[in-house]
Design goal:
mainly alpha; 25 helices
């Protein structure tokens, strides 16, 4: 008979005005002991909780085991997979979408509208998860994401599709943070690395496999199914979550006090300052790379406006302290800001491969969209293997930093080898290059998550994760823009990524292919440099032993 460890949602209720001292004393119970090598500044015990959360005492916590644990983990993994799939599946569908709506001028907005809406809300999601039931908050964000997917599928104009993508982005803003917040509450902290490794390994397949799935659906069915696919798969995940009670390890205010909680705890003024700063920055990147150019007054004004608004936002966050949407006390921890820099570099390098390897295979190797997706399988397979393996070994051996260092080294090697791709590169070579690069993504992507979980008390995990996921989203916007500038396709040919073969003579074709391959190489130079960033800042993530301490060690 299965041992049931699930808890009642919101089983413990306390007034919102619970004293901060109680929060600190209870939050400390879950905090690991700092290792001797770490400074007190980076120890969660030294700085205590950065927010006014109250933890359920250790002896009263309930965790999931057995089939319930597997089903909840599978459900949130599936949702995160769909969210990441939605980011990359549209890449291979965009040409058909622009043909259908005759909307080539809107092509940039199909991706940026999602990213802008998501980035604006992400920091706020941490405060939402800290103050409301995790399962129902997660399902709420997922409902908005599914609504956006439905609207995308039935869109009858380009403008409707852009708005629908923004709706999906609003929902997607809380999904990855919610997934990691729920995972952190399912099992004791020392058991989470293996679980996180498995979850991240599989959900990241959405980003890598998106072009393949999008190519199949676009060619064989319709581009609309790139969005419809989220609905039946999402329904399965929703049913699983509705049938199982998910434990919360943080004491949440009663639902009847929701209006008061929103006004007092969510830092709406900080959100009102942060959102325009994020919007102006992302618009500046979008307009600078496309419509206006980097020297235009519009782009320069947007950059200046983003910087000025962000400074005001920081001053406000400093003023309100623990109530801040992004507590500066938390950001100042070395483990937190270095983890954010590591995930920025990892995500930027990963996107370079996800977006530009398919271009290499379709434009240079003349593969179909489906076959270009198949050609990414070496990266996918190695990513799964190393994600599961590293997560398991971190849980057993106790240290995550060596895997982040390994990820930096293999990222440099893999991206460096991919930067040598040429029209004549053999199949055996590019498969080997992809395998090395895939090992880097699998081994390192969960390490910043694990580092942050052990850098802050569990009551602050959702806020810290929101900061981490925002860093990831910002990385996508910034480095895709940089990659687009580096990959100067317009300087090569204005005929498009794959249609140039119909307008280029046989005599000129070898030179054009070499130029395309060289442009892809430049993008992987950037990815190689990001590997250096991963390697350098991985050492700042600390050398904490994440294994459960034995009673004799705790007394010592």
């Amino acid at each position: 008979m299965e041992k049931s460890e699930s808890s009642q949602d919101n089983a413990v209720e306390v007034p919102i005005s619970s004293p901060v001292s109680s929060s600190h004393s209870l939050s400390k119970e879950l905090t690991p002991d700092p290792s001797p090598q770490e400074s007190t500044m980076d120890s969660p015990d030294a700085s205590e909780s950065a927010t006014d959360t109250i933890m359920i005492p250790e002896e009263e916590r309930k965790y999931l085991t057995g089939m319930k644990l597997y089903l909840v983990t599978g459900a949130v993994t599936l949702v995160s997979f769909l969210m990441l799939l939605d980011l990359s599946i549209i890449v291979t569908a965009i040409p058909r979408i622009t043909d259908h709506f005759n909307s080539l001028a809107d092509v940039g907005w199909y991706g940026s509208s999602y990213q802008i809406a998501s980035a604006c809300l992400q920091p706020l999601t941490g405060k939402v998860y800290s103050n409301f039931n995790s399962k129902w908050t997660f399902l709420g964000f997922f409902f908005v994401f599914e609504l956006g997917s439905l609207l995308c599928g039935i869109a009858n104009s380009s403008k409707m599709l852009i708005i629908a993508r923004a709706v999906a982005g609003m929902g997607g803003s809380g999904l990855m943070n919610g997934c990691l917040t729920i995972i952190a509450s399912l099992v004791p902290l020392h058991k989470s690395p293996g679980l996180i490794g498995m979850v991240m390994g599989f959900c990241q397949l959405g980003m890598v496999g998106g072009p393949l799935i999008g190519g199949v659906l676009t060619e064989k069915v319709s581009w609309r199914w790139c969005f419809y696919i989220n609905l039946p798969v999402g329904a399965v995940a929703t049913i699983l979550l509705l049938c199982i009670e998910v434990p919360d390890q943080i004491v949440k205010p009663p639902v009847k006090n929701a209006a008061t909680t929103i006004m007092r705890e969510l830092d709406l003024i900080g959100f009102a300052l942060f959102s325009p700063a994020a919007i102006q920055l992302l618009l500046a990147l979008e307009y600078g790379a496309g419509t206006y150019g980097w020297k235009s007054a519009t782009v320069i004004g947007l950059f200046c406006g983003a910087g000025g608004t962000f400074i005001i936002f920081l001053l406000w966050e400093y003023r309100i302290g623990n109530k801040a949407m992004i507590p500066l006390q938390m950001v100042a921890k070395r483990k937190v800001w270095t983890s954010c820099l590591v995930i920025i570099a990892m995500y930027g390098a990963g996107l370079a491969a996800s977006y530009y390897l398919p271009i290499y295979f379709q434009a240079v190797k003349d593969d179909s969209p489906i076959m270009s997706g198949v050609s990414l399988l070496p990266t996918i397979v190695m990513q799964i293997i190393f994600a599961v393996m590293s997560g398991t070994l971190i849980g057993r051996l106790g240290y995550y930093t060596p895997w982040a260092i390994f990820a930096g080294v293999t990222n440099c090697v893999g991206a460096g080898l991919l930067s040598t791709l040429a029209p004549e590169t053999s199949t055996a070579k590019w498969i080997g290059y992809e395998m090395i690069f895939g090992a880097s993504r699998g081994a390192g992507f969960q390490t910043p998550i694990i580092a942050i979980q052990h850098a802050v008390p569990q009551g602050d995990v959702s806020v810290a994760m929101a900061l981490l996921i925002f860093s990831q989203t910002l990385s996508g916007a910034v480095f895709l823009t940089i990659a687009n500038v580096i990959f100067d396709a317009a300087a090569i040919l204005a005929a498009g990524a794959t249609t140039f073969r119909s307008v280029v003579s046989k005599e000129d074709l070898p030179g054009v292919l070499k130029a395309y391959a060289k442009s892809c190489d430049y993008v992987f130079y950037m990815a190689t440099g990001l590997g250096v960033v991963i390697f350098a800042f991985a050492f700042g993530m600390g050398w904490t032993d994440v294994r459960k301490k034995k009673p004799s060690e705790e007394k010592a």
